[in-house]
Design a protein that fits this description.
Elements lengths: L3 E2 L2 E2 L6 E2 L2 H12 L5 E4 L7 H5 L5 E5 L2 H8 L6 E5 L12 E6 L5 H10 L3 E9 H7 L7 H6 L3 E9 L4 E2 L6 E8 L10 H12 L6 H8 L5 H11 L12 H9 L25
Parallel strand pairs: 4-5, 4-7, 5-6, 7-8
Antiparallel strand pairs: 1-2, 3-10, 8-11, 9-11
């Protein structure tokens, strides 16, 4: 028999957002976008009902059948509540916007599903604070970010205290934005070879980026890599996690320049510090 909590059902790992300023932040970010909206995990509608005020077509996906049925009775004609698991829900291929308070224990598989899905243009997501920071490249990027950076921009909006949820989780949350790049830094056809390249370099062994690249990507001409490292101002102690999106795509492209002799290397990238509002 399922275990219940007065604020949520434990088997779904739900932590419901109750903080009005955070709800307003999410809605405001969605308001800056265009197109139909898909909400991941509607719960009792704390975010769904304010999103309705934007006057756009809204589809809410909720795994809890009872909550989905209750919320459906409170929504307007532009809103559809669907009882489904987001990880198995068939997403449209036409443009739309994603928004949601992702279950902390499901964050990684949900982000993978999102990044691999076509159609959506923007995503406004509430995730664990440390996940939001690392996905946005604050304090060093993750492998997942590096693998998807040529096609998506990641941004950190704000930190959300654990007290903003019921039941209260053990960690804070963070508002993360993801925007599909138009145009991308690399063509779609390069996705698989680039992601393999990024994985090899990111997990490579060695002291310092130049040695890691030499060992992990021997297909890149050594002299060209050395010139690129100097041009980018990369120090001997820097690691793959310290690279930013433009540097990753430019490094990968070093191996393609013989096939495209007219292609120029990207200029040195000026770093900007990424921070979030507390």
């Amino acid at each position: 028999m399922p275990t219940h909590h007065r604020h949520g059902r434990h088997e779904y790992g739900q932590n419901f957002l109750t903080d009005r300023p955070t709800i307003n932040t999410l809605v405001d970010r969605v308001a800056r976008t265009e197109g139909p909206i898909i909400e991941i995990g509607t719960g009792d509608g704390a975010l769904t009902l304010p999103l309705q005020e934007l006057g756009r077509r809204l589809t809410g996906i909720e795994i809890d059948d009872r909550r989905a049925a209750r919320l459906a009775r409170r929504t307007n004609a532009l809103t559809t509540i669907v009882h489904a698991d987001f990880l198995h829900y068939r997403l449209p291929v036409t443009p739309y916007v994603l928004v949601g308070n992702l279950p902390f224990h499901e964050t990684t598989p949900m982000l993978r599903r999102i990044l691999r899905s076509p159609g959506w243009t923007d995503a406004v997501l509430l995730v664990q604070w440390e996940v939001a920071r690392r996905r946005a490249g604050v304090g060093g990027a993750t492998l997942m970010t590096a693998q998807w950076w040529p096609w998506f921009e990641f941004g950190l909006v704000s930190r959300v205290p654990a007290a903003a949820f019921r039941p209260r989780p053990n960690v804070d949350g963070g508002v993360l934005t993801i925007t599909r790049r138009e145009p991308p830094l690399l063509p779609p056809a390069e996705q698989k070879p680039y992601q393999d390249f990024a994985h090899r370099v990111f997990t490579g062994k060695g002291r310092g980026l130049p040695r890691i690249i030499a060992a992990a990507a021997p297909e890149l001409p050594g002299q060209r890599v050395a010139q690129w490292v100097r041009r980018q101002g990369i120090g001997p102690g820097q690691l793959p996690k310290d690279l930013i999106a433009e540097q990753w795509s430019d490094l990968f492209s070093l191996g393609n320049r013989d096939a495209h002799p007219g292609q120029r290397s990207a200029p040195p990238v000026r770093r900007t510090r990424r921070t979030g509002r507390r």
